[in-house]
User: Fold this.
Amino acid sequence: MKLSQFKFRLPEEQIALYPNYNRDECRMMVVHRKSERIDMFRNDENGQPLKNEDGSPQFIEFRHLIEYFDEGDVFVFNDTKVFPARLYGTKEKTDAKIEVFLLRELNEQLRLWDVLVEPARKIRIGNKLFFDESGTMVAEVIDNTTSRGRTLRFLYDCPHDKFKRELYALGSAPLPHYIIDHEVEKEVPDESEPGKTKIIKVKDRPVLPQDMEDFQCIYAKNEGAVTAPASGLHFSRELMKRMEIKGIEFAFITMHCALGAFHNIEVEDLTKHKMDSEQMFVEKEACDIVNTAKAEGRHICAVGTSVIKATETAVGTDGQLKEYEGWTNKFIFPPHEFGLADAMVCNFYHPLSTLLMSACAFGGYDLVMKAYDMAIENGYKFGCYGDAMLILDD
Assistant:
């Protein structure tokens, strides 16, 4: 397929900048890929529309997810844990403000980290960056890796656990740039013409301490992600407890989500696009849970595009999930024949994104893009803090 086939107009006001107060109370659109039905509203047991007190139809919410699954069905979750990857430092001598985005630790003993820097043109090998007022957290640039990539060596002599705690204490939640760079127009005095005003654009979404909790799945366990597996953000403890009581089973895999999903695709022919590699782990326990359920004819629901990528990497030609430890740069776009999951939870994604392409591959291009048209028309929210979609194989 072509990149241009995934272009659509997304109104600014439909990009979610903040999470729902309750994780599981966002809207959820249900897409049935065989019958090609798309449901937005709830019905009673007789198929009649349920109404709110004002007579308006009731939107399906994420907490109603449990109604679509039965005892013995399996949800596959990505239990990667996000760390506070975004730091701001100053360059020695010039005091220029530099954003440093931690990607991964390369060497624990030498304190080496793979990072991205912005603005990159100001940062060269040999430069030192300071991250706190006392000057104790200092890093030296020792290598260029990409146009924005650098290798930093932190000059901090203490036990590793203490170093990590103090480094992370200086960081903030790595919210996507479409959130933190969101701008609104503001009227301000025009200093060049006294008595007059002018319109300027200002950023209106600060990163808050609460974001470190909000931008984390409640079941997150294994640290290593620099962005959240966002479809999992909708699951609350109450919902998962209700699922457990119903007899729905959980399998956990780990894929440390990187930033590849936010990179611009620069080729029209999608077969020529190369994804960043992401580290993943699929252990025996998850394989046993999934393979047993599949043998019994149960549903396997993948929670998010990261799980789809991991399971499609680790599934065998026999349709069985295999143990796996390594890296994957699998790029899933239509058409793609899936080997494991028959249901998927996903979000509403931005135009031209690899995440949208994965959702279209699973649900069918025409059907998912039709659902997106309906989402825009009905005010659904897009992005990691937005609304959800459930794709079923019926």
